[in-house]
Amino acid sequence: MKKTDILIIGAGLTGLSCAFKLEKKRADYLLAEKENWAGGLARSFRKDGFTFDYSGHLLHLRWPETSKFILDSLGKNAKPLKRKARIYSSGKFTAYPFQMNLKGLPAKVRSECVEGFLKARRAFPEVKAENFRDWCLQTFGKGISKHFFFPYNAKLWNYPLEKLSTDWMGQFVPVPKTEEVLYGAYKDDVKGAGYNHDFYYPETGGINALPAAIASGVERLSLDSELISLNAANKTARLRNLGNVRYKKLLSTIPLKYLAEKVEKAPETVRKNAELLEHNQVYILNLGVRKCPLPQHWIYFPEKEFVFYRAGVYTNFSPSSAPRGFSSLYVETASKSGEFIDLKKAEGRIVKNLVSIGAVKDEDDILTSMWLKVPCAYVIYNEARKKALPELLSWFEKRGISSAGRYGAWKYSFMEESVKEGFETAEKLLKR
Ligand SMILES: Cc1cc2nc3c(=O)[nH]c(=O)nc-3n(C[C@H](O)[C@H](O)[C@H](O)COP(=O)(O)OP(=O)(O)OC[C@H]3O[C@@H](n4cnc5c(N)ncnc54)[C@H](O)[C@@H]3O)c2cc1C
């Protein structure tokens, strides 16, 4: 039987970053990945001369150690960019974030939003609502909630907003001051608000350039090595193509819900807690098209008539994502986990939507397309998660198993956070 001190499951950014640190410390580790490529969601695909990602994967950097590591890894390939994001609603493009840039909306919609916002501010309650729906009404008022937050989030989460908790929002939902809302409603765009105003993207190679650079410093990566089952009592993992591997400590970066299902003879509480964890699924339609005239990096689409919640233009981050004179686009649609989606029908509707906003002239402008599926995309923040998550993580920790990363820790996080967690977990595993 194979033996290793530290077994890492999953070679996305979390697993790769952990392995990278362990390699530097000359630790005994093995990184096992189910697919025949590394990078997880930060993977890029080439088709007919176009480069596609799992939709826009942009590097919003905020912490000194990981920012430096990521930028050093990309070297000259790291391209700094300033956000050009818009919202398309009521037939108009307005600047992001919606709540701070009401100026371009039709007068009636703008009045509804401003009036509702001022009313909500005057009524500012002592106790903040704990469900997302009520929190929106308290924070932004009826108009902004009706025209953006409710329809957009309903499309993204596919979950009742009154059951969604508010502990995911942090940096993702900017809360403006009253004067900012008024300025943005009557004067000019409020620039630079929100967490994602500055970002980096690789000049060439799509976002995959990042995991590829990290993987070049990782020797013991075993591809096509899916974790089949885990004997937590004996500290043995059964892996496709590798057989049984005995470990002393384990880092799992695969979705926690599905890790629990792999545990042999898992106790009832583990199985029940895993069942409580919920998530949605995202289908991404990537398109290679004749020149797209839109100047934006990405656009949010709250309204129902649009099948997708967000769309973006890769070539506006990196012209090398398409042959000269062409553009590559992505469109993100979300649905309930496991729901059947008729992709052909969806594609037809998406193309009609894109033509209606001028992103493509007509169907003949589409040269190639590629659907990508993220079966576990956004984890649902609800009361059940609050209870089940700490119990599950602690059950695994007690058995020498750390579960980290966006899906290992079952959270709404981003690439830099995955790198940070990979590093921190490596330090933790070396100390134990
Ligand atoms: C639609 C979408 C858009 C996003 N946009 C951005 C963005 O713009 N900026 C940003 O910073 N972040 C973005 N993210 C988040 C980003 O993708 C993640 O934070 C990051 O890639 C997660 O890395 P990870 O290693 O934790 O997980 P993953 O990338 O999911 O890696 C887990 C790995 O485990 C492997 N695996 C699964 N099961 C097994 C098994 N049984 N055995 C072995 N291996 C297994 C998988 O193949 C995968 O390689 C986005 C996410 C989504 C869904």
Bound molecules: flavin-adenine dinucleotide
Total helical segments:
11
Q: Tell me the span between the first and last alpha carbons.
A: 24 Å
- Please report the first level of CATH classification, the CATH class of the largest domain: Alpha Beta
CATH topology of the largest domain: FAD/NAD(P)-binding domain
- Give the number of domains: 3
In this structure, how is the largest beta sheet organized? 7 strands, mixed
What is the average of the pLDDT values?
96
Describe this structure in words.
There is one protein chain. The protein is of the alpha/beta class. It has three domains: 2-42 and 208-278 and 381-431, FAD/NAD(P)-binding domain (3-Layer(bba) Sandwich), CATH 3.50.50; 44-56 and 196-203 and 280-378, Polyamine Oxidase, Chain A, domain 2, CATH 3.90.660.20; 98-189, no CATH class. It is built from eleven helices and 18 strands. The strands form four sheets. Strands 1, 2, 9, 10, 11, 12 and 18 form a seven-stranded mixed beta sheet that branches. The longest helix is centred in the middle third of the chain and has 26 residues, at 132-157. The site of flavin-adenine dinucleotide (FAD) has 35 residues, from helix 1 and helix 11. Residues 9-15, 32-35, 40-42, 54-58, 60, 226-227, 253-254, 282, 332, 374, 377, 405-407, 413-415, 418 line the site of flavin-adenine dinucleotide (FAD).
Can you give me a brief rundown of this structure?
The chain is an alpha/beta fold and about 425 residues long. It has helices at about 15-25, 65-75, 105-120, 130-155, 180-185, 210-215, 255-260, 270-275, 345-355, 385-395, 415-430; strands spanning about 1-10, 30, 45, 50-55, 80, 85-90, 90-95, 200, 220, 225-230, 235-240, 245-250, 280-290, 300, 310-315, 325-335, 365-375, 400-405.
